[in-house]
Design a protein that fits this description.
Radius of gyration: 24 Å
Distance between the termini: 51 Å
Oligomer: single chain
GO biological process, one term: DNA-templated transcription initiation
Family: Belongs to the sigma-70 factor family. ECF subfamily.
GO molecular function, one term: DNA binding
Largest sheet: none
Strand content: under 5%
InterPro entries: RNA_pol_sigma-70-like, RNA_pol_sigma-70_dom, RNA_pol_sigma70_r2, RNA_pol_sigma70_r4_t2, RNA_pol_sigma_r2, RNA_pol_sigma_r3/r4-like, WH-like_DNA-bd_sf
Order of helices and strands: HHHHHHH
Pfam families: Sigma70_r2 (PF04542), Sigma70_r4_2 (PF08281)
Length: 182
């Protein structure tokens, strides 16, 4: 066997060993904590179907992680992932409910198709994520300016601030959106 063949054999054995270790860690993590995580999610969400979906998504995230050997507190690790997914789930559910409420008064002829509803909810969710983290006044000023077409003076009056502050809020929101999209 040539040196190259030996090195390739060693590399294959190393990769196989790492893969087996990784698979064992994931299996152990799932077997020891899936029931606990499902119960935790059920208590938080009050719905076993949503809990099952989020548990699946949580372990999918774990599968995407390269190194599982650094997980010292498995339940805390799983809870952190599941909590983030749950927050996003609840936000999306709230956005969906608000949108459906908003279009509920439309006649059947005016009502958007299910595909359009899905696209709108996805778009609104993306906008919500993009604006997440902005201070309340900045977010409100930006939304009133972009969605309601209010002037800077009208927004300033609503917020009881100067027009200059409104300009700064909107500029800050735009910069935030640009940074989030890049």
């Amino acid at each position: 066997m040539s040196n190259t063949a030996i090195y390739q054999h060693v590399d294959v054995c190393t990769v196989d060993s790492i893969t087996q270790t990784r698979d064992s860690l994931i299996t152990e993590l799932y077997q020891k904590h899936n029931s606990w995580l499902m119960g935790w999610l059920c208590r938080k969400l009050g719905c076993s179907f949503d809990a099952a979906d989020l548990m699946h998504d949580t372990f999918s995230r774990v599968l995407q992680k390269d190194d599982l050997t650094d997980i010292k507190e498995p339940r805390a690790y799983l809870t952190t992932i599941a909590h983030g997914l749950m927050v996003n789930h609840v936000r999306r559910r709230d956005i969906e409910a608000a949108y459906l409420e908003e279009i509920s008064h439309l006649s059947q002829a005016e009502a958007p198709s299910p595909e359009t509803i899905n696209i709108m909810i996805e778009t609104l969710t993306q906008i919500d994520e993009m604006l997440d983290g902005l201070p309340g006044r900045v977010r409100s000023a930006f939304l009133w300016f972009q969605l309601e077409g209010l002037s800077h003076a009208q927004i300033a009056e609503r917020l009881s601030v100067s027009v200059s502050s409104v300009r700064q809020y909107i500029a800050k929101a735009l910069l935030h959106c640009i940074n989030m999209s890049s």
